[in-house]
Specification:
Elements (H helix, E strand, L loop, with lengths): L28 H4 L7 H9 L5 H6 L4 E4 L6 H7 L3 E8 L3 E4 L6 E8 L4 E7 L4 H4 L5 E11 L2 E11 L13 E4 L8 H15 L9 H7 L4 H9 L4 H33 L10 H8 L7 H14 L6 E6 L5 H14 L3 E5 L3 H14 L7 E4 L5 H12 L5 E4 L11 E7 L6 H7 L8 E6 L5 H7 L4 E5 L10 E4 L5 H13 L3 E5 L7 H17 L7 E4 L5 H12 L5 E4 L12 E6 L7 H8 L10 E4 L7 H12 L3 H12 L24 H17 L3 H19 L2
Parallel strand pairs: 5-7, 9-14, 9-15, 10-12, 10-13, 11-12, 13-14, 16-21, 17-19, 17-20, 18-19, 20-21
Antiparallel strand pairs: 1-8, 2-4, 2-6, 3-4, 4-5, 6-7
Helix pairs in contact: 8-9, 9-23, 9-24, 10-12, 11-12, 15-24, 16-23, 21-22
Length: about 700
């Protein structure tokens, strides 16, 4: 398609058919990379905000706009009685005073114009006593009411106007507000952005192929950037963000798929052929029938293992959906082929759980199991590593210690519960000497498909979305403090009925020693008090491994009725007779972690329960998490809620919430856009992307590409 092919104009007055002023090239570094000048303090403040160049300025869109188009004189706004109003005037003296509520302070001033005045109130914004100088002209928006003390406004937002004659309705009345700091105000940023738009706005390179812009009715990048900063109406800003979000997601998906295509082309893995007699014996020996979702997952994995291109697949499923059996089937395939397999877990508790499962399901088939972890005696560890180094067909199970073991014939590697890590960390896990293994990543923490396609976009995705028949939904409730004693009495009744219970102690971030002491103290308190009639024990991560394993084994054997623990039991604990989960200070835990803890019960045929005790002063976010857990049993639904609440976090690092690597796209709202970008990126890879879009993907997500290449 020609570069000047006609594209429907998404912005009124903008000729989207007009080609860029320069030929389609990438990038134009001379001006975009130009450092921002000015006073040293301001330059340092800009760098701290990540705004070192003009290109950085243009990429950082406002996070909101003040709509000052309906400014009214103060007297008219008061008479109109509208719930929200925007008024302009000069501030009087500014005062600050405390309230009866601890930690809450009020800042107030009187705003006046030629028609009247109104008292403005801000909560917990003490800095305004320094920045609001009497006589300053501002525009304020908020809830307006008239009481015994006259007109009052609780200010939702305000804008300091630059001069005595500045029109708040200028530029369409949409005033951009940027993420600012004490050294760089949003007003300064507005001026710098105006300069950058004038200097390089028409020279912005556009990575999107014209065919994609035409198909999706997207504006040129230069017009989207301009509208994103200086829209004439809010609809333009939304259209601009959508265009930039699509571009960002397309480049991300293209980077991931190009990397995967390069890996597939290199090959290097062993083609294991179709399942043989050993796999059939494994299937026949299972004490249960596989679900339809498990069968589909096995079929996809079998196809992967029959190729020389190394498998890179994410097996995702809710708690108790049967992912481990599917993983074991993949391990059997490697041994059946005469090779070696390994299953790596992040904790000893989970590794031991897998070891017990392998002893039950794999050893009867004559498959050798080599367990490696820190608690294995050194002499035994050396002997097992020698067997592995000699190339004997076997299945190795352990923690990250497996990474330091030489596998001459490793054909299948299963990495369990690595959902906490980003692409760079996950890439290091599968790195090693020898042949390229087929790698299956597992997670029992359901991930929204939008996040999975992004953070795990270099992997094929398989979802097990069925639970085994007979599993009952876990009844979850938030227990008020006044009924705590009743809750303990009910636990005793459950124990007397032959059941067992967990009590998880409060989370103390980054302080395992304090968590351990809290768990021991809580176990002692319960054993001497409300649970004195039952057998209570304690397990936490600071215990010697042998002691912790002894306690866990005794609980699994029914020799302990109530296990008081830290989050060491979050994964890898499978006791079907345990039907009660109690979580103390539950609002302090993340939603995914709460769902994992709840998944420790409900693993048998009996009805199970999860009791959530909130802390003394739960935050609104904590209360929302508890409410979501009570209302939803599906981990996939909870994952979507969690994504909306926390944000997607960094895709390349270890941070799992908060600020994202993505500038424009939001995975909780742009799911359809992501699916479209994924399809378009796959088509570009099949047809061969041009140098422009390929270079843009490298520039924008080069860090991710390099992290994957290092693997």
């Amino acid at each position: 398609m020609r570069e000047n092919a006609r594209v429907p104009a998404p912005f009124p007055g903008v000729d989207a058919a007009k080609p860029p002023p320069r030929p389609r090239t990438w990038p134009d570094p001379t001006r975009l990379a130009r450092p921002i000048g000015g006073p040293k303090r301001r330059v340092e403040g800009l760098v701290a905000l990540g705004l070192g160049t003009q290109g950085d300025l243009l990429a950082a869109l406002p996070f909101r706009f003040e709509d000052l188009r309906r400014v009214r004189p103060i007297a008219e706004a008061v008479l109109a009685g509208e719930a929200e109003a925007t008024v302009v005037g000069r501030v009087g003296s500014v005062t600050e005073r405390p309230t009866r509520r601890r930690g809450l302070r009020i800042v107030q001033t009187r705003l006046s114009d030629d028609t009247g005045s109104v008292t403005l109130t801000w909560f917990n914004q003490r800095h305004l006593t320094r920045t609001l100088v009497p006589g300053t002209r501002i525009a304020a928006r908020g809830a307006l009411k008239v009481g015994t003390r006259g007109a009052e406004m609780t200010v939702r937002s305000h804008e300091i106007l630059g001069g005595p004659d500045e029109d708040p309705a200028a530029a369409g009345g949409l005033v951009p507000v940027y993420h600012a700091s004490a050294r760089v105000s949003t007003g300064v940023l507005r001026g710098l952005v105006d300069e950058a738009l004038a200097d390089v706005g028409d020279r912005l390179p556009d990575p999107l192929p014209v065919e994609l812009r035409v198909r999706h009715r997207l504006p040129l990048r230069r017009d989207a950037i301009t509208a994103g900063h200086r829209p004439r109406r809010l609809g333009e800003q939304r259209t601009a963000r959508r265009r930039l979000a699509y571009e960002e997601l397309l480049l991300l998906q293209l980077a991931l798929l190009l990397h995967r295509d390069a890996v597939d082309t290199q090959g290097g893995a062993a083609a294991l052929g179709p399942p043989g007699p050993l796999s059939a014996r494994f299937r026949d020996g299972l004490p249960f029938a596989l679900t339809g979702a498990q069968e589909r997952a096995l079929a996809a994995i079998d196809r992967d293992l029959d190729r020389e291109r190394p498998m890179q697949r994410l097996l995702e499923g809710d708690v108790g959906s049967g992912k481990t059996v599917v993983a074991f089937a993949a391990l059997v395939r490697a041994v059946e082929h005469g090779g070696q397999a390994a299953l790596m877990a992040p904790t000893e508790v989970l590794a031991l759980q897998h070891l017990r499962g392998a002893e039950r399901l794999l050893e009867p088939l004559g498959i050798e199991i080599a367990y490696l972890s820190g608690d294995v005696p050194e002499r035994e560890r050396r002997a097992r590593r020698a067997r592995i180094a000699a190339g004997h067909p076997l299945v190795a199970i352990g923690t990250h210690a497996l990474l330091h073991t030489a596998f001459p014939r490793l054909e299948v590697l299963v990495v369990d519960e690595q959902h906490r890590f980003g692409v760079a960390q996950r890439a290091r896990l599968s790195a090693g000497d020898g042949p390229v293994p087929h790698v299956l990543h597992m997670t029992a923490t359901p991930i929204p498909r939008s996040l999975a396609l992004t953070a795990f976009g270099d992997l094929d995705l398989t979802i097990i979305d069925e639970l085994p028949p007979g599993r009952q939904p876990i009844r979850t409730s938030v227990v008020p403090e006044a009924k705590r004693a009743d809750g303990y009495a009910w636990i005793v009744e459950q124990v007397r009925a032959g059941r067992q219970a967990y009590v998880v102690c409060p989370l103390v971030e980054e302080n395992p020693d304090v968590e351990a002491r809290a768990a021991e103290e809580e176990a002692a308190r319960l054993a001497a008090g409300p649970l004195t009639a039952v057998r209570v024990a304690c397990a936490h991560g600071q215990q010697p491994a042998a002691e912790r394993q002894r306690v866990m084994a005794a609980f699994a054997a029914g020799e302990i009725d109530v296990l008081v623990a830290t989050t060491v039991i979050e994964v890898g604990v499978d006791v079907p007779n345990a039907t009660v989960m109690v979580v103390e200070d539950a609002d302090r835990f993340g939603l995914a972690q709460l769902h994992q803890l709840r998944g420790r019960v409900g693993r048998g045929d009996g009805q199970s329960y999860c009791l959530l005790y909130a802390s003394a002063e739960p935050t609104p976010e904590g209360e929302r998490r508890l409410d979501a857990l009570v209302r939803h049993t599906s981990g996939f639904e909870l994952a979507e809620i969690d994504l909306a609440m926390r944000g997607e976090g960094r895709l390349l690092g270890e941070a799992q919430s908060g600020a994202s690597d993505l500038r424009y796209a939001r995975l909780d709202t742009d799911r359809r856009l992501l699916e479209r970008a994924r399809e378009d990126a796959a088509r570009l890879v099949r047809e061969g992307p041009d140098d422009i879009v390929r270079a843009a993907a490298e520039e924008r997500f080069g860090e991710l590409i390099q992290a994957l290449r290092r693997a």
